[in-house]
Design brief:
By secondary structure, the chain is mainly alpha-helical. It contains six helices and no strands.
Amino acid sequence: AGVLDAVAAHLVMQRAVATMTPRDVSTTLHALAKCRHHDPALLDYMAEEVVLAAGSFDPRHLATTVWSYATLKVIHGELFSAVAKESIRKAHGFNPENLTNIALAYATVRHDAP
């Protein structure tokens, strides 16, 4: 966990997420979820950035993002609401895997999507 702690600290202290692509953000979150690395400061910061940039995320990255938070059992209401709204706008672009991941995420955290 030492390396992940260092990466998390760097991302938060440097406010680096704002310069990351949606792919970079979702991949980072996926890695944290797969490692079960729960860093509240980083996850809050990343959620805030995703809320601001949700319009630039494609369906895959939207699904991966909320799947990651759900896997970590982190319920960030504003994030889940922003992703739900954007997912509705981009519903035509979701493939079966994206749909499964996003449905699983919302069911896991029991978030009421709009």
